[in-house]
Amino acid sequence: MVHIYVGQENTHWYLHERLLCYHSPFFSKIFYADDNDPEKQKARRDKSYGLPDEEDLPFEMLVGWLYSRDMKVPTEEKDVGPLLDLYLLSEKLQMEKLSSEIVEAVSNYYYHSQSYPSLRRVQHIYANTDDDNEMREMMVGAIAKLLTTSDKIPAHWASALQRNGQLAVDIIRAIQQWKLEEKTIPDARDRSSSRGRSQLNGFSEIERNGTESMETEKTGRTSNMGVESLNSDHDGDQSMDDAKVSKSEDSEA
After folding, report:
1. Which residues are bridge partners to 118 per DSSP?
2. Assign residue 76 a region: left if phi > 0, alpha if psi is -120 to 50, beta otherwise?
3. CATH code for the domain in which residue 56 is found
4. Cα 221 to Cα 159, 162, 226, distances in angstroms
5. Do 131 and 93 have their domain in common?
6. Is the same domain home to 105 and 122?
7. DSSP per-residue string spanning 201-243
8. How far is it, in rounded angstroms, from Cα 68 to Cα 32?
């Protein structure tokens, strides 16, 4: 048995070493690896390890999965947040099977509820993962579909894409992976009424105004994570219905 201490309050968990190390290469290196790292040597000797920067709930969910191989499937959007925190913990502990099951559960929720990840959820994953991440890829692909099939880009997404160049690039890459037939895509170079610009709606007044205001902002920008704060008024959960605007409203704008 090993002792795991979680969070600032040092919540104590008493877990089976073999089970934990079988699912987590991270803990396997801690308790089994033979190296000169003083911290690992102490952990092996004392059969204990601390995770002071982790929250109690994600680790409790991890232990539940560890012993039952089951997790709560999200039925409401508010259920997604704890699963994403569990996902980030599973990534840190290198628990690939758990990570994959969480991606499957979250993607199934969005698919069956006919909704999309909110900007707040996407920002949270982008801020805590690296490139080539499965959850990030799923979310970006979903948002690519949302923005491509909507009449216009919602203001909070337009703002985020201007601030986060990497997110914009990833969305374009996701669209490229659709392998669309070239003949199905309008050609702006063709000025005929059947294929060209006259068939497109162009940029909406709302989006132009939003772009102009963004250009005059004096805030710093980065090419990676300079997105809106997670506490921004625009970061509330956005359903598919919130993101779509009728064509008539677009014309009026």
Report:
1. none
2. beta
3. 3.30.710.10
4. 12, 9, 5
5. no
6. no
7. ----HHHHHHHHHHHH-----BSSS-PPPTTSGGGS---HHHH
8. 24
Query: How far is residue 40's CA from residue 226's CA, in Å, rounded to a whole number?
Result: 36
Residue 23 pLDDT greater than 70, yes or no:
yes
Residue with tokens 């994570």: 225
What is the mean pLDDT of the segment spanning 166-184?
Answer: 89
Based on the fold, state whether residues 173 and 136 are members of the same structural domain.
yes
> In sequence order, what are the residues at sequence separation of 6 or more whose Cβ sits closer than 8 angstroms to the Cβ of residue 142?
107, 110, 116, 117
Report the pLDDT value the prediction gives residue 207, as an integer from 0 to 100.
55
pLDDT tens for each residue of 125-166: 999 999 889 999 999 999 999 999 988 999 999 999 999 889
Tens digit of each residue's pLDDT (9 = 90 or more) over 91-107: 999 999 999 999 999 99
Q: What is the DSSP letter of 49?
A: E
Strand order in the sheet with 48-51: 11-15, 2-6, 48-51
